[in-house]
Design brief:
It is a single chain. About 75% of the residues lie in helices and about 0% in strands. It is an all-alpha fold and about 60 residues long. The mean pLDDT is about 90.
Length: about 60
C-alpha cells in the first residue's frame, strides 16, 4: 500500500512539473526531440532494471 502511495505522489509531482514548469522551456517540436522523449524513459528504465538485476546476482 505504501508503494502505491509513493508512486502516485511521484506521478503527481512529475505531472505538475510538466504542466507548470515545462511550459517555459524553449523546446522546439522536432523529430529528434520526439524520439528523445519516447526512448529516453524506456532507456533509463532498462538501465535501472539491468543494474538492479546485476546487484542481485551472487558473485
Amino acid at each position: 500500500m505504501v508503494l502505491v502511495i509513493k508512486v502516485m505522489a511521484i506521478a503527481l509531482v512529475i505531472s505538475l512539473l510538466i504542466k507548470y514548469v515545462c511550459v517555459y522551456l524553449p523546446i522546439t517540436p522536432s523529430t529528434t526531440n520526439a524520439l528523445i522523449g519516447i526512448f529516453f524513459p524506456a532507456g533509463v528504465m532498462a538501465l535501472l532494471l539491468l543494474w538492479r538485476n546485476s546487484q542481485g546476482q551472487p558473485k
